[in-house]
Amino acid sequence: MSTQRNTRFALLPLALLAASVQAQSASDINLDNAKALVAAGDCVACHTGPGAKPFTGGLKMSTPIGAIYSTNITPDKETGIGDYSYEDFARALRDGVAKDGHNLYPAMPYTSFAKINDDDMHLLYDYFMTQVAPVKQANRDSDIPWPLSIRWPLAVWNMMFQDDSRFTPDPKRSEEWNRGAYLVQGLGHCGTCHTPRGIAFQEKASDQHDPAFLTGGTLEGWHAPDLTSNMKSGIGRWSVDEIEQFLKTGQTAHSAAFGSMTEVIENSTQHLSSADLKAIAVYLRSLKSSEAEAAAPKASDATTAALIKGDVSRPGAQEYVDNCSACHGLSGKGYANTFPALAHNPVLLSDDPSSLISITLRGSKMAVTQDKVTGLTMPGFAWRLDDAQAARVLTFIRSSWGNDAPKVDASDVSAIRKEIPDEELKQQPSLKP
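Structure (tokenized):
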């Protein structure tokens, strides 16, 4: 599981919404429930720019047509959401239409938030209007060039792709399953990253009735993995307890969150109740495999035996020993609850190697949570490995220890390297080995 989100398409919803009602005290709303809803939606991740106060916006989110900047969603009446009524707020979250009538870009997951029920929507509105301090901070216009910045075509997009119906519980399923489905499909907006998108940037599915739902999606050089019961590249080999542990701590004995998923863990899922985490896990484990024929990888000690003997004749083996083995081991099994395994890791077995390339070039940070406070960091190797070297070592990893995934080409590495901001590359060491 992971996620993509430098792009952070997670919450551009609350970005352009707002509210204007009579003030309430904390005693007038169920504050614990309201906080849980805000955490489930991960509002702070998208609506807090670098070094800024929470919910004041300014975070850059890239889209295929240009950058969008999240907006101030504090109840400041001049620059925030202080003039939105509840109806304005709900319309923005569910329909993607701002108070003044302009359409929001679908980078904001109103397609998911449409499923939020009325009680929860009122709690969200009341929380932002009464529990968030107003901060005056001007919003920034998008970098999308004209004529692509014209908004009216978004109304046509909504007519084609937006389903604004509320979540409807399945009477044939348990209360726990329905709770998990509600969180995953709605406030959690997991499909925003983990569901593939079509040519018009629409999510290809919104729930388990469509086989494309949560089968993995790629944005900005990161591939959010398959969350179905696929035994090879999905979570078919994960138990309910392991999914709960992952969402609570960002780690299991064999895996770890990476990329923007670390922020989802830190800001959102670690703060959910045990009951909600289990409900999410139960729902995810119920999803049919994206590939019914997919089989779990079979263990093979051939690579380990060769490396122990000092045999680095296979392409990529020397790069692996020099750059990866210290943490991930000659066996590829890593170290339980410390460094994730490379052997049989579902993320590595996806047909799309984008995340593996991005982690190798850019590095990654583990989530810092109440239960896992270390936050170990993997450095980026963009400065150390050229495109051909990176492709060799990644192909080696994807074909060792029983892994069976397609090779990585130098052109694949080059394409993702070009997406890394120059400022980020400058922070890596400049000396070649």
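The chain has three domains: 9-133+151-161, 175-285, 302-426. Residues 175-285 form a domain with the Cytochrome Bc1 Complex; Chain D, domain 2 fold (CATH 1.10.760).
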